[in-house]
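Interim report to the steering committee. The following record documents the input for Exocyst complex component (789 residues).
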Amino acid sequence: MEAKPKRRIVTENGDTGEDLVLATLIGNGDDVGPLVRHAFEMGRPEPLVHQLKNVARKKEAEIEDLCKTHYEEFIVAVDELRGVLVDAEELKSDLASDNFRLQEVGSALLVKLEELLESYAVKKNVTEAIKMSKICVQALELCVKCNSFISEGQFYHALKTMDLIEKNYLKLIPLKVLKLVIERRIPVIKSYIEKKVCSQFNEWLVHIRSSAKNIGQTAIGLTASARQREEEMLERQRKAEEHNTGGLGELVYTLDVEDLEQDSVLQFDLTPLYRAYHIHTILGVPERFRDYYYENRLLQLKSDLQISYSQPFVESYQTFLAQIAGYFIVEDRVIRTAGDFLLADQVETMWETAIAKIVSVLENQFVRMDSPTHLLLVKDYVTLLGTTLRKYGYEVGPVLDALDKSRDKYHELLLEECQKQIVTAITEDTYQQMVIKKEADYENNVLSFNLQTSDIMPAFTYIAPFSSMVPDVCRIIRSYIKGSVDYLSYGVNTNFFNVLRKYLDKILIDVLNEVILETISNNSIGVSQAMQIAANISFLEKASDYFLRHAAQLCGIPSRSVERPQASLAAKIVLKTSRDAAYLALLNVINTKLDEFMKLTENVNWTTEEMPQGPHEYMNEVVIYLETVMSTAQQILPMDALYKVGVGALEHISNSIVSTFLSDSIKRFNGNAVSAINHDLRVIENFADERYHSSGLNEIYKEGSFRSYLVEARQLINLLSSSQPETFMNPVIRERNYNTLDYKKVATICEKFKDSADGIFGSLANRNTKLTAKKKSMDMLKKRLKEFN
């Protein structure tokens, strides 16, 4: 035993360091591949082989030592194992004996067990048969119920029953024949139900299309009623505000009530649609039904948008627009109540199609229309359509834009219509003061247009200062304003007062004023006509403020905003200019008549030898005529116009006297002729003073009396009658007494002045010293005027 350790020591002592490293790697189970690869790469595999052999010998020695160490223990174990084999043989013999006895006892029990198992199998088969029979009976009962539902038209219940059969019974039916029959019939029944539902839905499509017009008319009628109530309430509110009372609360309450009425009145049945969609959803084809609905409704819309040209548009527009309104009210109800059945994009596509067609139809029809009434009727209904559909969320801007584009066309037609009425009113006017016998007539013709000259109610019969043309024209203009407001209301622009103001100026300037100017330019009018026209224009000018206030009231603009002077119409200035033109026409007629009366070259003897005792006879006619003209003018013309008429006539007389002295037809005149003209002039001056004071003009025009407009003729007569006419050349005297006389005119007139001393019989008469001195002074004046010129 001691020799073995000596051998192991020797072996261990024979190991080199490299052998220990390699042994350690192999003992640890490490990979020695890198060492082998390295040895071959270095070209020295022999040392490595030698080392591996050393390691192998070392391991063999270890194994051998281990076997020698446990040899005795192994022998003992083998002996014990032999003992166990003997015991096992004995146990096997016992088990065989016990098994034989058990087989003898269990044979009878096995027979009983087989009988029991057979009974259990029979019972199981019977139970299974009963269960399968019940399943078949229940399935058949459901089939019968499904047939009953189909015959009664209760397709939803029929589908639910078939769904129950498919999910709960079809897989469990044991009879293949029955199962096959049911499987084949289910698709057939579903197809039948789908066709039946589609048929009912198609009937609903026809019905809802035929009902769309009534739906649209009802909805538009409700909108019209609401608009009328709102306008009435705004009118009451406006009047209440003018009296410092409030009415806003009532307005809000009524509008809220109207909002609640809309859906309660518009009742139409969508049940067939809901049912059809629900059944198609159960059938698993909702998309197909949605597409079917959309395509058919789109076809209906395109058909509704086809306008018939067999009858005038003004007779068919309500039906056309009401049908469209009803169509989209139905679509709105569908999209609000049917869940995700109809997409918003689909409705938007349909609406865009409709709006494009409506705009096209309106633009085409508006171009053809030649009546403002027809155009207004269509416009009103279109705005009602827009207001109605806007409540349902539809964008109606393009339709309102189309109406706005036709705004000028409407006003052109309205202007033409009113122009004819205005021309008729003016041409058929009698140019006589209007006689008003009743208070109602006074209110309708005077107060309603703010034409009264006093706030006090006059006594009747009342003679107005204007003719019947004035209230007639005012009514025409008022109707024009109403027509314009009716068209501009509920359009694109909510604040359209400035637009209305432009159209109001247009009719007053381009129509009324032009007709008046044309009448004025007519040479056939007389003094009374010209005077009445001038008076009428002044009242029309006054009525222009009423027109502006009335327009503002209809537009909902506060009256105070248009009562400022800078807010007045441009037409007021134009009418004022036309009034001045009427005054000029009146003066021209008066002056022409005065010229007919006077005819100084014919009525005056410019070389008479007799001293005149008074004015010429024609002067009485002139005064009577002026008296008539001034009296009439005082009745119907305002004070400023009366003053202009008086000033114009008297100034014309003065100019006529001076012009006659300058006329080439008057070659010479003497002092007696000057004296006669002096008498005539005094008559006119007396008339001027009397009329100036009696008419009350002296209180208004204190620095410009009528006599002052005769001053040129007066200064000329005074110069010719002066004993020292040469003083005219004295600047101080001339400025004081002859400041209106022109040098050249005086020189021309003085050259014609030949006093009686220079007459044919002057040498035979007694020469008066005074006349001789006057003659010398006149000669001196003539000489100095020649030098001056």
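The beta strands are 435-436, 462-463. The committee is asked to note this result when reviewing the revised timeline.
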